[in-house]
Structure to design on (123 residues):
């Protein structure tokens, strides 16, 4: 499956979750529901995937965790904020660099209109 098909399914599922639940819940609630929807679509989803930092020849466990890795291709970082900041974008870019992935989705479920809570990040 190509990355555009994957991101399309992620966004469609995220819209469905946001429509059903609305804003105001904990991030973990949206994460569980989105994982459920993506699994129904037949996608492989890994939650809270550990991401080591490699410095020179040493692999360091610094506590980085990707919210969701879908089909081992797309990083999905979930937020419950009204608007994204530079720190949120930097987080996704860091995860993309450390994991050697190319596409990330930054999704915030704490928006009245979900379209305002979507940012596609390409490395």
């Amino acid at each position: 499956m190509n990355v555009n098909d994957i991101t399309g399914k992620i966004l469609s599922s995220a819209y469905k979750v946001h429509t059903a639940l609305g804003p105001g819940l904990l991030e973990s609630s949206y994460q569980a529901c989105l994982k459920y929807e993506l699994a129904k679509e037949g996608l492989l989803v890994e939650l809270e995937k550990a991401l080591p930092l490699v410095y020179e020849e040493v692999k360091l466990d610094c506590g980085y965790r990707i919210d969701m890795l879908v089909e081992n291709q797309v990083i999905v970082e979930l937020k419950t904020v009204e608007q994204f900041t530079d720190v949120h974008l930097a987080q996704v870019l860091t995860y993309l660099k450390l994991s050697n992935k190319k596409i990330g989705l930054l999704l915030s479920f704490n928006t009245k209109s979900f379209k305002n809570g979507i940012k596609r990040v390409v490395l």
